[in-house]
Amino acid sequence: MLGHKILSKVLLRCNRIIYRRKGMANKIVSRIMLILALVCMSTLAVNFQPFVGASEGSWVWVKDAVAGAYGEAVVGTDDAIYVAKRSSFYRYDPSDNSWTPLAAPPNPDSGDAFKTGTTLAWDFGDYIYTLYGAATVDSRRWFYRYNIALDSWEALTNTTADQGEGDAMTWVGADNCIYATIGGEQRATYFMRYDPSADSWSDAPADPPEGMGDGASIVWAGGDFLYALRGEDDEVSPLCDFWRYSLIDDVWTAIASIPADAHSGGGGGVGDGGSLLYAGFWLSDYENYIYALSGNQANPDSIPDNRTYRYSISLNNWERLADLPFGVGYYVGCRLGYADGNIYAWQGTPSTWPGEGDDLAKYELPPDSSSPTIGIPSRTPEDDVLPEQPANVSVNVTDSESGVKNVTLAYTINNGTSWENLTMNPTINYNVSSSLYEATIPGQQAETWVKFRIATYDYAGNNATRDGTEPHCVYQVIPEFSSALILPLLMIFTLTVVILSKKRKMKP
Fold first, then answer.
1. Residues 6+ positions from 245 with CB-CB distance below 8 Å
2. Is the bond leading into 94 cis (omega within 30 degrees of zero)?
3. DSSP string covering 402-415
C-alpha cells in the first residue's frame, strides 16, 4: 500500500514537470524510461540468480575403510561413526581419523550375524540398538544392543515379527523408546515400539500405509513426527514415497516425494543404500532439514547412485545437494551418520564397484546465510489510540528458503527500561515461506508513549529485527473527553451562540 502511494506521487510529480516544462518533456520521459528499464533489469537479475546456500556444501573423501556386504548399516553418535557389516562391527573416530574393529556381534544362528535389513539406532547415551535383519528365506527376529563404554553386546527381547529388507529404526527422545518398521518385500511390514525400561515390544502404533523394502529409512526430527522413506517394494518399480508419522495422532501421512528421478540408464526411485539423517540435534542452524541418499535405482540393474538430497521440514520440499565422490547401492542399509560437526557417508558396496566399495566421505556443511525478512508493520487503529484501547499490530514475515519458525513483538511503555514480549501468531499460510503475523498490545493509560519492535527466527537459526526506531513503531495514547466534561462544554458553546445572536439583534 505504501509502495503504491509513493509510486503515485512520483508519477504525479513527473506529469507536473512534463506539463510545466514542455520543452524538456522528452528528456525527462527518456530519463524516467531509462531508470525504469534499469530497475526491471536489476529485478530480473535478482530473480534468475542460481540457488546458493546449502547446495554450496561439498563432499570430501576421508579415507578407505572396508568394502560392503549383506547385513550392513551406519549410525553416528556425535563423536564417532559406527558401522555394522556381516559379522563385524567398527568405529571411525574423526579426532584421529582412525578405523577400529570392535567386539564382534553375537551370532545366534548359522551364517552371518548381520543380514539384509540390519539397522542401527543410538539412544543419545550408552547404547546402540540393532535389528539383525534376515535373508529372504530366513525367519529371524534377533534384537541386540551394544554398550559403547564396555565394548560389549547384550541380547534383548526379540521382535514379534520377522525382520527383512524393510527394517528401519530410530530413537525417539520424547518417550525414550525405539520406533521401528519391521518386515520387507517378502513379508508384511509392521510398525512397532520398543520400551527399553520394560524390554518389551508393542505393536500398538499404526502400521505404515504400504509395505516397505530396500532403502527404507526412518528418523525422528526432535518434535512430534517421524519421517520415513518407503524404499523399494518389488525392486523393479521405482518408488519415491516419503511419509510422516504423528506420534500424537498415530497417523501416517504421505508428504513430498524425494526427487529420485531416473538417470544414467536406471529407472530412478529409492533402493539399496537409501538413507535419512537428522542433524538438528547438534546443529541448531540445520534443525529444519533432513538429509538423504536415494540409493541405487530400480530396473534394469543395480546402478551406483551418488545423488544426495535435503528435505525442508517447514516447507515440505526437497533440493538436490552436491554429489558423493562415489556411488552407493546394491547392499541394503543406511549409509549416513553424524559426528564431529560433519555428515559422513560410507560407500558400503562390493569391492568390484568404482571406489572399491570402501570409501568414507564427509559433507562439509556451509554456513546457512538465508535473512528472514520483516515487512513494514501496520497498526489498528491506524491513527489515534484512545486510553485503554488495545492496538493490534500485523506484519508480513518472509523466509523463502528455511521457513519462518517464530515471530515475537516486544513493547515498552517506559522508553526501553523494560520490555514485554508477545508471540505473534500467523493468520494465513502457516509454516510456509511467507505469512501475516499478528499480536495485540494491551490498552494503556492516556498520554503513554508506546514503542514496539519485532524479531523473528527461521528454522535454520537465522534472525531479523525491526528495532522499533521507525515512526510506525511508536505511538502515544491520546486523551479523550470524558462524558462529565462533554456536557459543560456543550452548555458553554450553546450559551456563547445565544449571546452572540442577541448582540447582532441589538445593533442599530
1. 179, 191, 205, 206, 208, 225, 226, 227, 228, 251, 252, 253
2. no
3. T-EEEEEEEEESST
pLDDT band of residue 321 (cuts 50, 70, 90) is: very high
Q: Are 173 and 196 in contact (CB under 8 A)?
A: no
Question: In Å, how far from its chain's centre is CA 76?
Answer: 20
The pTM (predicted TM-score) of the whole model is 0.69
Residue 219 CA to residue 76 CA, distance in Å, equals 13
Burial class (CB in 10 A: 0-12, 13-18, 19+), 306: buried
Radius of gyration (C-alpha) of the chain in whole angstroms = 32
Domains of the chain and CATH, by start: 58-364 (2.120.10.80), 371-508 (2.60.40.10)
326 CB neighbour count, 10 Å cutoff: 23
Single-letter code of the amino acid located at 326: F
What is the four-CA torsion angle of 409, 413, 415, 421, rounded to 10 degrees? -30
Whether omega for the bond prior to residue 101 falls within 30 degrees of 0, making it cis, is no
Could you tell me what percentage of the chain is helix, strand and coil, using 3-state DSSP and rounding each to the nearest 5? 15, 35, 50
Q: How far apart are CA 133 and CA 393, in angstroms?
A: 57
Give the residue carrying C-alpha cell 508393542.
Answer: 202
pLDDT digits over 186-239, tens only? 899 999 999 999 999 999 999 999 999 999 999 999 989 999 999 998 778 899
Whole-Å CA distances, 361 to 102, 306, 434, 476? 21, 12, 36, 60
> Residue 289: phi, psi to the nearest 5?
-120, 150
